[in-house]
Design goal:
globular, alpha/beta, 35% helix, 6-stranded parallel beta sheet, Rossmann fold, 12 helices, 5-stranded parallel beta sheet, 16% strand
């Protein structure tokens, strides 16, 4: 997918701040791509962007109308359809990360055909995918891997890209989820790929590259999540990571949405990932731990991160609070020592 920017972010009508996490992620990491926001009522949280209607957004250069919100089941609300059709009729492309396809709505499809614009169903790649090959690729690869879902894998991967580029290191973000695709403008939503093709899809978004280039692959799910372990396994084998960064949230006591499943220990995820990763890379290693410490005050967070770092002999950080420079320091040192 190659999604034209800049974007107008449609935030929907839900007052829950988590409902607009897709739009929030785009605005945080690629503010230059965002010209404005559309809120369907005043209770919807704001991103701090100018509130705009479709005509105003187009006048400011917006090319794609982005559904930056999510709801239970990922369905397209009936009340949004006339709005989407209006944006299309005025020449805007439309991008959606919902499970329900834009292309399953006849009114939207007919309008897009008449206007000659594209519909981007981010969770549903149309490219032909092969099964994974396991053949070694040139270049270097990093994969973020989590103790659970929603523990900061995308944020950490993007933070690493930003920090590495500031050091003039060659690095690129490889998106595997709908928000990451909108941030990067390309990628494949791995959670919608048929399981046989997950590893091959990851190979396709992180192909052969220059020997000194780092492809930073956004992780999904968790190897010890009863619902999503399969997608994580496919990512691990397709990425062939030279290095991994563990992502975790402090004080989360059970798998998200599964109160009957306790959170796995960090060391269990790490040892399992290394053991399974050797199938496609003979020597994967962890270079850092990224932890969401938002439930702790700053002093306690600093102490907790030191304890984790000492326990694993790795740099540990909260990417939001403290950045990821210590992980990049360690990554550079490891590969200089092995050069």
């Amino acid at each position: 997918m190659n999604i034209p920017a800049p974007y107008m972010l449609m935030l929907g009508d839900n007052k829950d701040p988590l409902a607009i996490k897709t739009a929030r992620g785009i605005h945080y990491w690629r503010p230059e791509k965002c010209v404005g926001q559309m809120r369907l009522n005043e209770d919807v949280p704001s991103l701090g962007l100018p509130d705009m209607n479709i005509d105003t957004a187009i006048a400011h250069g917006a090319k794609t109308f982005v559904l930056g919100t999510a709801n239970a089941g990922g369905v397209l609300a009936e009340s949004w359809i006339p709005l989407i059709v209006s944006a299309i009729e005025k020449g805007m492309h439309v991008a959606s990360g919902l499970h329900q396809r834009l292309t399953d709505v006849p009114a939207i499809v007919d309008a897009a055909e008449d206007a000659g614009v594209e519909l981007f169903d981010l969770r549903h790649s149309t490219q032909k995918l092969d099964v994974g090959s396991g053949v070694k690729r040139s270049g270097k690869r990093l994969l973020t891997i989590g103790t659970d879902c929603s523990v900061g894998k995308m944020f950490t991967t993007l933070a690493l890209e930003d920090a590495m580029k500031k050091r003039a290191l060659s690095a690129s973000f490889c998106a595997t989820g709908q928000t990451g695709i909108l941030i990067e403008g390309s990628g494949i939503a791995i959670d919608a790929v048929v399981s046989d093709f997950i590893a091959g899809a990851v190979e396709s978004i992180s192909p052969d590259c220059a020997p000194d280039h780092w492809q930073l692959i956004e992780g999904q799910g968790s190897l010890l999540n009863p619902a999503f372990s399969g997608v994580t396994m496919g990512l691990l084998h397709g990425a062939q990571p030279d290095v991994l960064v563990l992502c975790h949230e402090v004080n989360r006591d059970h798998i998200r949405h599964m109160p009957h499943v306790p959170m796995p220990k960090m060391e269990d995820i790490m040892s399992l990932a290394l053991r399974l990763g050797t199938l496609t890379n003979p020597n994967p290693r962890f270079v850092g731990v990224a932890i969401n410490t938002s439930s702790l005050n700053e002093e306690d967070a600093i102490n907790y991160l030191k304890e984790v770092g000492d326990a694993f002999n790795l740099p540990a950080t909260d990417p939001v609070r403290f950045g990821v420079e210590n992980i990049v320091d360690h990554l550079v040192t490891v590969f200089e020592d092995n050069a």
